[in-house]
Write a structure and sequence with these properties.
Layout (H helix, E strand, L loop, with lengths): L14 H14 L3 H5 L5 H29 L7 H34 L6
């Protein structure tokens, strides 16, 4: 039985696998493709992406609940608006990080290089 926190073996570069990892990073969860490729930095990437998503959801639910209760579109209280902006910034930053790591995997696979262990 494999421990879930055990590092995955670093796969040899393959264009198809690199594309799949890029798609996982962009469309599923930033850091997931990085983890599947066995590269370092995947856990912080996933944690920050989930934190940004959670902050956006808390802000969005707060915004919607005030809209429903008051019956009209209302402004945000300053702490809540900062939470939404921070969540958006964190989500965009981790998405860009996932895009960059996915592109690095694609470049490495295209050149047929062996990744340093």
């Amino acid at each position: 039985m494999m421990n879930s926190s055990a590092p995955l073996p670093r796969l040899p570069p393959d264009v198809v696998a690199a594309r799949a990892c890029l798609v996982a990073n962009l469309l599923v969860l930033p850091g997931l493709g990085t983890r599947l490729a066995g590269r370092p930095g995947a856990w912080p990437q996933m944690a920050l992406a989930l934190l940004g998503f959670a902050a956006l959801m808390v802000w969005g639910l707060r915004f919607l609940s005030r809209w429903i209760v008051e019956g009209r579109l209302v402004g945000n209280d300053p702490p809540w608006s900062w939470l939404g902006l921070a969540g958006l910034a964190l989500s965009l930053a981790t998405w860009a990080w996932g895009f960059a790591s996915g592109l690095a995997m694609l470049r490495e696979a295209g050149r047929g290089e062996k990744a340093p262990a």
